[in-house]
Amino acid sequence: MQSVAQIGHDIVDGIRSFKWPARPEKLGLEITAACDARCIHCPLDKMDRLPRPMEFELFKRIVDEAKELKFRI
User: Fold this and answer.
1) Among 52, 30, 34, 54, residue whose Cα is nearest residue 44
2) Is 55 in contact with 32 (CB distance < 8 Å)?
3) How far apart are CA 23 and CA 10, in angstroms?
4) How far apart are CA 62 and CA 55, in angstroms?
5) pLDDT, tens digit, 9 for 90 and up, residues 32-70
6) Which residue from 26, 32, 64, 65 has the fewest beta carbons nearer than 10 Å?
7) CA quadruple 31, 32, 38, 44: dihedral sign
């Protein structure tokens, strides 16, 4: 059973959620895992996948879906 404080917090969150956009406003794509910058925050050296470019068909599908959702591209 939730406490009164938790219920109040949930209600406030619900009210605030009406201000959130219906979908993300921006879309970022990592089109390749091949990078030689070695940024300290990047997990590239710990990834299991090969450092290669994204398949072009997948890229096209993502762009087409983003266009349908009316993302500015």
Assistant:
1) 34
2) no
3) 21
4) 11
5) 878 888 888 888 888 887 888 899 999 999 999 988 888
6) 26
7) positive
Is the pLDDT assigned to residue 16 strictly greater than 80? no
Tokens of 30: 């990592």
Domain contains 70? yes
Tokens 């500015």 found at: 72
Sign of CA dihedral 57, 59, 65, 68: negative
Question: Could you write out the DSSP letters of every residue in the chain?
Answer: ---HHHHHHHHHHHHHHTTS-SS-S------BS------TT--GGG-SS-S-BPPHHHHHHHHHHHHHTT---
Structural domain that includes position 27: 23-73
